[in-house]
């Protein structure tokens, strides 16, 4: 039990000394949620967050070299992700699997489809959270399809099991949604789920804003994972900007005027007129007034010249 808890919290990035210290204080039978709360209370942070908080020392690079040593980008998963322009992805495995299985079967293939979709986009940091009891053989009341996919994703360090155990024949399951939101919040990433996590929104105001702004919903259409093109609505960012750390503003596209040269709106026209790019877009009435002013001014100049002569 001690080794399993130690391995689990090491995967989350906490140091072994802090984990052992908490386990000594709380006891070996302490629940994982209590251990996590104690680690947070002690001020312990995952190693990835500590490395991001400390400013990296300046490095002198010889002339002619445009980058650092090639081996530096293979130092670790979290360091390579920090320089990437795509956000980390945290997938609610149970929600995705049950959605692909039509809420009747825990379909592990649905998780694989979601992971492959983000891999093809170039995301480096992808984590899937699934309860530990899903490793057990499927039962009639909880069928599982393609269970071997979970083993393969765990071997690739993509899938993380949230802890669970049996006490006097009853299964004690930790709240996996809290792990999902917490990891996504710490990594400043995106949560992939159709769940709204309303209980966690009421629990923490910072989590409330994060869930509202970083929750990516999805649909399965003919075994195809499809997130929406407008995750936050029609007036929100595009899917590409939603998944990027540095959103790119779209270039303005001018729609040509359907009336063309026959348009009489002038500068009040909201459309583009290619035939007058450098001319002031005046209305017809304003153009006539301007011509009259020019003719009147020319007439006054001629009268002054005649009087001077």
UniProtKB/TrEMBL annotation:
Keyword Magnesium: yes
C3H1-type zinc finger segments: 251-276
Domain C3H1-type: 251-276
Protein origin, superkingdom: Eukaryota
Keywords: Endonuclease, Hydrolase, Magnesium, Metal-binding, Nuclease, Zinc, Zinc-finger
Gene3D superfamilies to which the protein is assigned, alphabetical: 3.40.50.11980
InterPro entries assigned: Rege-1_UBA-like, RNase_Zc3h12_NYN, ZC3H12/N4BP1_RNase_Reg, Znf_CCCH
GO cellular component, one term: cytoplasmic ribonucleoprotein granule
Matches recorded under Pfam families: RNase_Zc3h12a (PF11977), UBA_6 (PF18039)
GO molecular function, one term: zinc ion binding
Named cofactor requirement(s): Mg(2+)
The family this protein is said to belong to: Belongs to the ZC3H12 family.
Protein name (record): Putative ribonuclease ZC3H12D
Organism, scientific name: Aptenodytes patagonicus (King penguin)
